[in-house]
Request: fold
Amino acid sequence: MIAETASSPIASASPEALGLDPAKLERACEIVVSHIAGDFHPGAQLAVARHGKLALYRGFGNATVDPSRPVDERTLFPLFSNTKVITAAAVWTLVEEGKLRFSDRVAEHVPGFEAHGKEGVTVAHLLTHQAGFPAAEVTPECFMDRERLRRAVCEFKLEWPPGSRSIYHRTAAHWVVAVLIEAITGNDYRDEIRKRVIEPLRLTREMFLGLPEAEDHRAAAMYTPRQTEKWPLDPMVSAPLFRRSGIPGAGGYATARAMAVFYQMMAQGGTWGGVRIVSPRMIDYVTRDFTGDLVDDYTGYPMHRGLGPFSLGQSGHPGLGAIGHPRTFGHSGVGTSYCWADPTSGLSFAFLSNCRRDNAWHNKRMDTLSTLIHASILG
Reply:
């Protein structure tokens, strides 16, 4: 078990005190250990929280393998698409300030975005992956150049009419969200996300969009499945630009503890540590199922997307646990991670690892772990 320190953003309590079965939590840890022993990934973190307290926070294996560096409580893992919900949370705050509506057309705030037929794209389209340009890309030279980035997203071209289909926008939609945040606030989107979400949660040491060079020593390396004795580094993540740029839909870094806190905030109706991030009504709204049984053409199944996270729904969702309450909501990170909250029980969960497995195996792993965590609820 990772020990609680004075700098921890959340107090700890025993599983029993939080109404959780410690044997179920321990079994989840045993499965993670078995996956590391089976060479599915070098290292991981697992965190479980309930009712504002941390029931479990454990590190496993190695953050880096050459040289060997164990995972500890301060290890930061790449979040990949878990970043999308953090970015979306900044949008929620703008809506609550009356500076934006989910029904607003992006072009109302970003002049020029209407080019190539995009005048009908709304904020809700972006957050539910129905914007119509899933294959659009932003080149690396735009990552740290605000004006270049704005021009790049304005040049995105529609592949189908907005709102007519659901197809996962890997990074394109959230690059537009970043430009939208900058257009409304006049500030760099990374600074706004830090100010609006990360700082109020007291996570400035455990959650980053744009990892400072001074924190590189804490970052877990990301690997691809090994075929020989050596673990191959993921070339995208190992590039300094990836760490610095804070790609709004894929480039965050955090600890599992930080992600458990982020989802505790949502499980508690938008408030953490006496600080209100957004209202309970906002959390209820953005975690609703806006796409229902509409099949996402990228994943091949209904995603039950909200305005940031997706939900388990009545028909289920890979990775969120078969026995979870339908209101359970969260997000995954490509083949590596999963974070979620169950607002009906006050439970939040975060698993982060450092090898990009295929999604079929990853979803099966996460369904097993998430089901165990749901089963740990005693009442």
About this structure: The chain is about 30% helix and 15% strand. The first strand starts at residue 43 and ends at 50. The mean pLDDT is 96.
